[in-house]
Design goal:
Family: Belongs to the TRAFAC class translation factor GTPase superfamily. Classic translation factor GTPase family. PrfC subfamily.
Structural class: alpha+beta
InterPro entries: EF-G-like_DII, EFG_III/V, G_TR_CS, P-loop_NTPase, PrfC, RF3_C, RF3_dom_3_sf, Small_GTP-bd
CATH class of the largest domain: Alpha Beta
Protein name: Peptide chain release factor 3
Largest sheet: 8 strands, antiparallel
Strand content: 25-35%
Distance between the termini: 38 Å
CATH topology of the largest domain: Rossmann fold
CATH architecture of the largest domain: 3-Layer(aba) Sandwich
Number of strands: 30
Number of domains: 3
Bound molecules: guanosine-5'-diphosphate
Keywords: Cytoplasm, GTP-binding, Nucleotide-binding, Protein biosynthesis
Subcellular location: Cytoplasm
């Protein structure tokens, strides 16, 4: 493929994730984007995950319940000459390291905020990962059809809590029952809200209220709008595409996903303001998406997607060149050569074989245990290299785990080693007694672990929940015996690095005050 065609293919791609707190409207917005792309004909196709509690003991049931977050880990569609890949970031009970890792495979993010609530905990966590990567983040403030927080307060919150500059591209006119629509500061148009009917646009310069505008927008609201727009011009941030691309400034849009209001204009702006797949750093320097040879990395491994096959799927983000079915690749970590025969991309609820894929695309490969999270694969003819390691994300929940039946020790060890390798849970050991401690980012990980230990390795396990919820990596040499107790526990991670587990933030701060010379680090 010529360099120019490859460049065009790359430029047309947008690979992003939607980050939000549960219930902010991610599913609803995703659905509206799929509608735009002609992927679904009517709303209500994208299933929510709220159809009941998980049956703790039934992994297959968990899979079923997880519905969309598994089968549509990636949604791909075309819209206005762009190839769109939306990567799902599992939330709710199935929030896990996968949720974070998915963010290492995207080039931009949409942050959905519930306008009645403002920034919530999960949004903040996910935002930090996006921020660390310096990718563009566009904000959609949702639920304007309901009475919510003052828009200026919301902007302040974004700046203070998230520490990012904001620039409202659209501005709401009223809200809740009084919601009139939004003003687009770039296009100088009002998008008129019509409830469930389709919205339309009216020109308005933002200063001179004429009958052309008052015919469509209740004039009671217009003087207030003019004042607010003037205030934003005077006191607000200056817009800079450069800053957006570096993730230093978030363009903000207001709308209502459920009414499909402001979604299309948001997405059109999104395509303009975000970047196509970018270069990535590796052990042999920068790898450009337009480099001729295929390369990609594994960001997620999903076991048992199809209960009938009990297979594992490795999700690979294509970073350069072109993927073709049946091509030969090398797995850099082991040097092993493989033919990539069975590959799939995931489209809504059905699997389709993918014959080719380009930078930004995600392919799912059947895996019989070859891959690990973070692995790089490169096309034939290229000498093996590794993309920079994926960051580790500190777990926030910890349990002590052991086999109920001590006779099953061997199976237990084997199971724990393999499941930990998949990366869903982290393993720690206490230095003297060698107790096994599992750490996870989300509760569901433990349930899945328990179920799979039983189903795949025949081991019943028991958990003892620990009170600790913060992990910090330390230099073992700095830690004296008298520094640790039941609230500050010393353990080792898989790589035998020393880790302190703290009972809570208060205990952590107390420790820092007492031992200021001890350097505590997080993977983030
Ligand atoms: P998710 O958990 O972030 O995926 O959120 P959902 O998309 O499932 O939405 C959570 C709830 O908020 C559902 O009951 C939606 O119908 C509702 N919702 C989503 N968008 C809007 C909106 O724009 N306005 C209002 N009033 N409700 C909304």
């Amino acid at each position: 493929m010529s360099k120019q065609i490859q460049q065009e293919v790359v430029d047309s791609r947008r690979t992003f994730a939607i980050i939000s707190h549960p219930d902010a409207g991610k599913t609803t917005l995703t659905e509206k984007l799929l509608l735009l792309g002609g992927m679904i004909r009517s709303a209500g196709t994208v299933k929510g995950k709220k159809s009941g509690k998980y049956a703790t003991s039934d992994w297959m049931e968990i899979e079923k319940q997880r519905g969309i977050s598994v089968t549509s880990s990636v949604m791909q569609f075309s819209y206005r000459d762009h190839h769109i890949n939306i990567l799902d970031t599992p939330g709710h009970e199935d929030f896990s390291e996968d949720t974070y890792r998915t963010l290492t495979a995207v080039d931009s993010a949409v942050m959905v905020i519930d306008g009645t609530k403002g920034i919530e905990a999960q949004t903040l966590k996910l935002f930090k990962v996006c921020r660390m990567r310096g990718i563009p983040i566009l904000t959609f403030i949702n639920k304007l059809d309901r009475e919510g927080k003052d828009p200026l307060e919301l902007l302040e919150e974004i700046e203070e809590v998230l520490g990012i500059e904001s620039y409202p591209v659209t501005w709401p006119i009223g809200m809740g029952k009084r919601f009139q629509g939004t003003y687009d500061r770039f296009q100088k148009k009002v998008e008129v809200y019509q409830g469930n009917k389709e919205s339309y646009y009216v020109d308005f310069d933002g200063e001179n209220i004429t009958s052309d505008v008052t015919e469509h927008v209740n004039e009671l609201y217009l003087p207030g709008l003019v004042d607010e727009l003037a205030l934003l011009e005077e006191a607000g941030n200056e817009f800079s595409v450069e800053k957006v691309k570096q993730g230093l400034l978030t363009p903000v849009f207001f709308g209502s996903a459920i009414a499909n209001f402001g979604v299309q204009s948001f997405f059109d702006a999104f395509l303009q303001l975000t970047s196509p797949p970018q270069s990535r750093e590796s052990s042999v320097g920068t790898i450009k998406p337009t480099d001729g040879s295929f390369s990609g990395f594994v960001f997620k491994i999903q076991a048992n997607m199809n209960p009938a096959h009990r297979d594992r799927i490795a999700f690979i983000r294509v970073c350069s060149g072109k993927f073709e079915r049946g091509m030969n690749v090398t797995l850099s970590r082991t040097g092993r050569k493989m033919k990539l025969g069975q590959s799939h991309q995931f489209l809504a609820a059905s699997r389709e074989t993918v014959d080719e894929a380009y930078p930004g695309d995600i392919i799912g490969l059947y895996d019989s245990g070859n891959y690990q999270i973070g692995d790089t694969i490169v096309g034939d003819g290229t000498s093996a290299f590794n993309f920079d390691a994926l960051p580790k994300f500190p777990p926030e929940l910890f349990v002590k785990v052991r086999a109920k039946n001590a006779m099953k020790h061997k199976h237990f060890e084997k199971g724990i080693t393999q499941l930990v390798q998949e990366g869903a849970v982290q393993l720690y050991r206490t230095p003297y007694f060698g107790d096994n401690i599992l750490g996870a980012v989300g509760e569901l990980q433990f349930q899945v672990f328990e179920y799979r230990m039983k189903a795949e390795y025949g081991v019943d396990i028991e958990f003892v929940r620990m009170k600790h919820d913060i992990a910090r990596w330390v230099d073992r040499k700095q830690i004296k015996d008298n520094m640790t107790d039941s609230r500050v526990m010393l353990v080792e991670d898989r790589d035998e690095h020393a880790v302190l587990l703290f009972e809570n933030d208060f205990v952590l701060r107390l420790f820092q005050d007492k031992y200021p010379d001890v350097t505590l680090s997080t993977p983030l």
